[in-house]
Specification:
3 domains, 8-stranded mixed beta sheet, 435 residues, binds cytidine-5'-triphosphate, alpha/beta, single chain, 14 helices, Rossmann fold, Dihydrodipicolinate Reductase, domain 2, 6-stranded parallel beta sheet
Length: 435
């Protein structure tokens, strides 16, 4: 019996899919179809897939062409599958031509011509609503927003606004955006979602204006230097039934949820100590220190909660402001140290010591894709990781797409009480800075 295998996502099952399965079958007596698993697609950044895995499997099954259906769960699985299922011929569309030649060591490799004029991407573009994103910027650096947004079906970055005409024009040019504007009314008229990327002092005003125009808002935290003002912004968003969400990508990446699960679920016992350090040397951006501080406090409020007993703040300043700060929190359960270096470089790391294990991330933990678990009972350090693609922004956007589809405006990434607690601490540090 000659066995044939082929793979695909088979999203929004179409004629091209049917044709390739039919032709693949003709290369043998038994056809195995590999359908990509959801985790695999998420890990490689293919967030555009619409149908669930169960639906995609069902659609392949309904053709009656597959003798067996398997799930493709990780990169490199194909080699193992060829050996395990004793495959004679591997068939794939010629959009992959040359990419799988290395498999010819294991079995026959056949590339078949794609059916012309149809693809899942095309169908998705035709049938799903696209939201236009406008960026409000005071620097010509998009932090990959445009590229990341454009990988999803649901979004497209269409315009940029800046108070400064030159920045707006340069931003448009650099990222190939349709329009640039210094006229707010004109800018708001063309967008559904506003992404605010500017210095902290200006954020609240832009947020207010965007919400008043019934636009959903994504903004770097903190939205304001005042808790009271931020509360009002949340209320305004609620009254206008729009989303107001922090641009904290970390909480939308699987590995962070694993870490949260592990620490909240008691898997490393009681948390005795939590320490994290963050630094970046980005002198050009005003108040970057407070952006770093807000980010540094985020895993603390998520993992340790918002109820600390007291905090001791040490800062060191130069003529431009804070260059380094160390915050020492006492919680009922343990101690937390947050170190933030602005011009002072600190080694980026996060360490959580629990009574039955220690978790550690070396390097840029806020965009890490792994953590280590040092379990004293085990001989080796366990590594937990989940791949993600790009800088993480598309995962945040995907959540926004789901919220829009489900008609909900309250975010479960950084909760409002957590964001407000972060600002309460920011206020304390600002107070210290002034004295
Ligand atoms: N395929 C084909 N003809 C098409 C579309 C797909 O022969 N018009 C083949 C692919 O080459 C692949 C299989 O069908 O061997 C599964 O492809 P998949 O990536 O799931 O479909 P696409 O329509 O290409 O999806 P997307 O637009 O998301 O890339």
């Amino acid at each position: 019996m000659k066995k044939v295998i082929t793979y695909g996502t088979f999203d929004l099952f179409h004629n091209g899919h049917y044709n390739i399965l039919k032709r693949a079958r003709e290369y043998g007596d038994y056809l195995i179809v590999g359908v990509t698993g959801e985790n695999y697609d998420i890990g490689r950044g293919k967030l555009s897939v619409h149908d669930t895995l169960a639906e995609r499997i069902e659609n392949v099954k309904k053709t009656g062409l597959a003798d067996e259906i398997i799930v493709e769960e990780y990169l490199g699985q194909k080699i193992g599958d060829i050996i395990r299922y004793d495959i004679d011929t591997f068939v794939i569309g010629d959009d992959w031509k040359g990419k799988f030649d290395h498999l010819s060591r294991y079995c026959n490799m056949v590339y078949l011509e794609r059916t012309k004029g149809i693809s899942s991407t095309q169908i998705r573009n035709e049938i799903f609503k696209t939201y236009d994103i406008g960026v409000i910027a005071d620097i010509v650096d998009d932090n990959q927003i445009v590229k990341e947004a454009n990988t999803l079906n649901e979004f497209r970055v269409t315009s940029v606004y800046s108070d400064d005409e030159e920045i707006a024009a340069d931003f448009k040019e650099k990222y190939g955006i349709d329009s640039a504007s210094t006229d707010m009314e004109e800018f708001f008229a063309g967008v559904d979602i506003v992404f605010i990327r500017c210095e902290t002092e200006k954020r609240a005003e832009f947020i207010r204006k965007a919400i008043a125009q019934k636009k959903h808002v994504i903004c770097d935290p903190p939205f304001s230097f005042s808790q009271e003002e931020q509360k009002k912004l949340y209320q305004l968003a609620k009254d206008n039934n729009v989303i107001l969400i922090d641009n904290v990508k970390m909480v939308y990446i699987h590995v962070f949820n694993q870490l949260l699960w592990m620490t909240q679920g008691g898997l490393i016992g009681d948390i005795l100590s939590f320490q994290c350090s963050i630094s970046r040397n980005d002198r050009d951006r005003k108040n970057i220190f407070y952006d770093l501080l807000a980010l540094g406090l985020c895993p603390m409020v998520k993992i340790m909660g918002c109820e600390y007993n007291n905090v001791d703040i040490q800062i060191s300043k130069d003529s431009d402001g804070i260059e380094f700060a160390s915050l020492d929190f006492k919680y009922d359960s343990g101690r937390v140290i947050i170190n933030v270096g602005n011009k002072v470089r600190v080694r980026n790391q996060l360490e959580i010591i629990g009574s039955t294990g220690t978790i550690k991330i070396n390097g840029n933990w806020w965009r890490g894709s792994y953590f280590e678990l040092d379990d004293p009972e085990a001989d080796e350090v366990e590594i937990y990781n989940t791949n993600y693609h790009g800088n993480g922004f598309k995962y945040l956007l995907k959540t926004v797409a789901t919220m829009l589809a489900n008609g909900r405006i309250d975010t479960m990434g950084v909760f409002q009480d957590e964001a407000l607690k972060i600002i309460e601490i920011v206020e304390k540090v600002r107070e210290k800075e002034k004295n």
